[in-house]
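F.,

This is the one I mentioned.
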């Protein structure tokens, strides 16, 4: 594809208007793609109350929540399964299973991708390129296909990991060098990029100059493409060890923040008339695959890889200077709501802390799970959903 430039005037996020109500969490990282819930009336007790628990199989999927249903995925007995549970009781609403390889190269394997809910549909992309459109209420498969086999796109070492992003009539997938566009009604591939390996992040939407764009990662770059036809607008080279560009970029006005693990580091870019310009680059915050959150000009995120000494850090976006560091958190994942951080450590500790640049201020800490915990927690409608890699799901009271 040829590269074209557009003026980034009027930079803004844009999202479809038919998402579920604000207290729901129907898509990965929430409806604003920032990992921040707009829920305010919530509280987790020092000893959290478990409302229900479930077993969903091996995997690292997070959760999506809408219309009283919560979805996640897991692997068992040579199959991946999309699980739809009653958000209030945990009872099975439906499940859909399909043959899938465990994919235990370098780690225990299992599912990685989080489903996407839009209205009465659920969309899901597997690690191996299986793409599904299902009825949200029943789990009935409306259409399915394998986009990797159809296009010959390279499968990344750990498989595809980004969630489908709904953009009007298209699903934008992080498949190929710079993404793929699929008709959400039929599954027809509308556009595709070169077959080189994708990164592991979920496409992030924004608008510039009246154009709808998405930022997708590959093994060595982050690229903005036009939604309707996949035309690249800009591409910023960001080569990483093992080709792991996994955390989602974070947009703020006419700037974008990128962070990667494996001792690569992070950068703040200014979006201009053509190629982005580097504002600063540093190793201060290295997100291996769980993204940071940006609150009032400060980034909060996990610095370091899961097999290294990690810490929670607060970093000023404008200049990359560290405000504080908390080493007791170690590796983990997080989201935020109402000025507070909701952190699930790799060892299964649930930590609530204030999101303040003045210093680390812990509000509570409780051991809620055992086993490896890499999946991001999700707060929705006064309930907090957490899981571990073996597939134990807990719904905790957060009212």
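My design for it:
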């Amino acid at each position: 594809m040829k590269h074209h430039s557009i003026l980034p005037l009027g930079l803004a996020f844009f999202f479809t208007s038919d998402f579920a109500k604000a207290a729901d969490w129907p898509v990965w990282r929430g409806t604003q793609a920032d990992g921040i819930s707009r829920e305010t009336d919530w509280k987790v007790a020092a000893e959290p109350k478990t409302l229900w628990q479930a077993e969903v199989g091996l995997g690292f999927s997070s959760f999506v929540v809408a219309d009283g249903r919560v979805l996640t995925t897991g692997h068992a007995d040579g199959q991946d399964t999309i699980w739809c549970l009653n958000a209030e009781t945990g009872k099975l609403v439906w499940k859909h299973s399909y043959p899938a390889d465990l994919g235990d190269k370098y780690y225990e394997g299992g599912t990685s991708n989080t489903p996407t809910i839009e209205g009465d549909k659920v969309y899901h992309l597997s690690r191996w390129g299986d793409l599904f459109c299902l009825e949200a209420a029943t789990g009935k498969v409306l259409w399915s296909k394998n986009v990797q086999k159809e296009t010959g796109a390279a499968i990344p070492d750990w498989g595809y990991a980004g969630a489908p992003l709904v953009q009007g009539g298209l699903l934008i997938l992080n498949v190929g060098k710079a993404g793929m566009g699929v008709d959400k009604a039929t599954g027809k591939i509308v556009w595709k990029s070169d077959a080189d390996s994708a990164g592991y992040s979920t496409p992030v939407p924004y608008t510039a100059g009246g154009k709808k764009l998405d930022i997708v990662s590959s093994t060595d770059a982050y690229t903005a493409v036009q939604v309707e036809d996949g035309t690249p607008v800009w591409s910023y080279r960001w080569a990483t060890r093992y080709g792991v560009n996994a955390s989602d970029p974070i947009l703020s006005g006419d700037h974008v923040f990128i962070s990667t693990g494996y001792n690569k580091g992070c950068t703040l870019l200014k979006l201009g008339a053509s190629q982005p310009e580097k504002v600063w680059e540093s190793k201060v915050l290295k997100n291996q695959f769980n993204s940071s959150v940006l609150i009032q000009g400060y980034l909060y995120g996990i610095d370091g890889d899961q097999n290294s000494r990690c810490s929670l850090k607060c970093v000023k976006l404008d200049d990359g200077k560290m405000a504080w560091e908390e080493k007791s958190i170690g590796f983990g994942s997080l989201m935020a709501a109402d000025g507070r951080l909701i952190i699930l450590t790799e060892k299964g500790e649930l930590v609530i802390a204030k999101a303040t640049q003045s210093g680390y201020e812990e509000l509570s800490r409780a051991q809620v799970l055992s086993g490896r915990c890499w999946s991001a927690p999700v707060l929705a409608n006064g309930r907090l959903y957490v899981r571990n890699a073996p597939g134990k799901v807990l719904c905790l009271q957060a009212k």
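The domain at 36-397 is CATH 2.130.10.10 (Methylamine Dehydrogenase; Chain H).

Talk soon.
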